[in-house]
């Protein structure tokens, strides 16, 4: 029962599965069949049985259906067989129709092929036209590029290349010719870079060659701009110069006017010839090269190359020639090249952006300025010609003004000018030392004679001499100074003018210029003129008369110093009462020269006395005097009288000192003659003769050869000789020995040593000449007296030596 119940339960399930198999797709049968095996055991057997029963049922239904439709199938086959015959006929007809149609269509096919071929050609032509229309602009642009390259329009060529790459090549990039073009463009760019760089090198070489012309042009322009103001300054200075001592300044003033007029005429002639830097140099290569490298994106390379090459050129320009200091043209060429270099750099700075910067030009200028100053300092030190130094200064001023106009700082150049000014003053001093020497050599050292009013005015116009007494005298008459005095005065003023020339255009105030003029004039007076005067005074051929005239000359030059101060004031328009005004030191200069001349007068006068004294020819053994003074002494006295007459033009103290010095020296020379160690014997007759000569000396002293001595002051120069000779002439030894050392002693000036020396010489003479004196009582007594006096004198001398 249980089994029956289970079989009843599975039948509906098997039917359901069979329905699903029949109704679903074969792909989904798997899960359905799996459910058969997942059910109860042995269920698949039952399912197979059920499946077989189902198949048998379907076979039965198929068989029924075939039996039902069999007659209809037979009928359809019969009809089909009937149709077969008709179909064959139709086939024949169709075949025939097709044959005839094929035959008829062959011509059409031929024409159709022709049409198709033409259409294809037409389509191809259209395509070609379209492609050519697309390529033609590219080819035209490339052709344009070639034309630009041939015409050296490289910047435009680069722009064309950019258009080709960015606009045209993308249209035709698939074509081979485009690839060739694309591959050729980098080479063209390199060619352009090389060509433009070559042009730049040519440009750099060109501006290097034209730098001097560019600089010359720029300096002319700067000088022309400054001409008017400088001319006005010169005119104002000349107007000031007319206010005082117009007669003394007329010659330099006329000269300055002539020079000014000449310079203005020259500038008017050259004004139309001045060109600009753009007229002299074609800057297009550097612009073009800059644009090309900018377009190529390599602007930094170009800037570095340009700056490097220009620095090299700057070093070459700054290197002077070894003989530059010999001529002004050497300096001018040096300055014009430097100015030309920096004018070009300034132009490049203002017309380009970034190629040259202000920092770069400032750095380059500072480097150049240091080199320029070092070069000028070195080469100017070789200059010995003040005119060359002055021209150098003018060139430096124009050079500085020119570059200052282009914005370059030039203060260090003006500082250098102050160094060169000192050197200029040194060269002036050397030149004027030669001028003064020539003046002194040409002077005759005698008062200036004048025979008429015209000659008098000529001298007065050259030298500020004022003497009412001389003006009242009738012609002919003489100025007290010699010809060198006005010449010296004129040359000192010429020196001031020369020194003033250097001070012009230095952008300094009148006070500073006044101070510079006074200091340089002081150097001229205290060093150059003083040295020339001292050398002149010490020259062997300068005699006493010349020395006297030199003293007179220095006196008048000393008096003229105040006029020189007024002259400088007149030029600079700076009052002497200004607190910081430097004074001229001419007073001390001429005083020192006068003192040297006075000392030289004393020396030469003593030398002349020595020359006369050397002519003395005494017979020291004579028994009796000649009864008259020696000839050499009378000649000496006459010489002194004539010399002291010349001394009347000297200051009183100078003449008195010279006279006193001469008398003292003569007295000393005569004393030394008596005491000469080579003189062994002196007779009483020689002493008497010597006494006659001393008497003439005393008479000369008492005759007051030079006024101003009080009483017998001059005679005191011979007091030592007088007391010594009186002692021996009178033979007053008892009084000498008794009064020795007393202030009121008659023979106070007689030294025991001197008396002993002379007495011993007389004692030897007595022994030699009086062989038989021992047989005469008087001579024997005198000999004993001499020996006694000698002993006493020796004791005095010994006592003096022990006391000292």
TrEMBL record:
- InterPro entries annotated for this entry? EXOC6/Sec15, EXOC6/Sec15_C, EXOC6/Sec15_C_dom1, EXOC6_Sec15_N, EXOC6PINT-1/Sec15/Tip20_C_dom2
| UniProt domain Exocyst complex subunit EXOC6/Sec15 C-terminal: residue ranges | 413-761
Ranges in a coiled coil: none
Is-annotated flag, keyword Coiled coil?
A: no
**Single GO cellular component annotation?**
exocyst
User: What are the recorded Gene Ontology BP terms?
Assistant: Golgi to plasma membrane transport; intracellular protein transport; vesicle tethering involved in exocytosis
Question: Exocyst complex component EXOC6/Sec15 N-terminal domain: from which residue to which, for each copy?
Answer: 50-219
UniProt entry keywords in alphabetical sequence: Exocytosis, Protein transport, Transport
**Family designation:** Belongs to the SEC15 family.
Q: What does this protein do?
A: Component of the exocyst complex involved in the docking of exocytic vesicles with fusion sites on the plasma membrane.
Q: What is this protein called?
A: Exocyst complex component
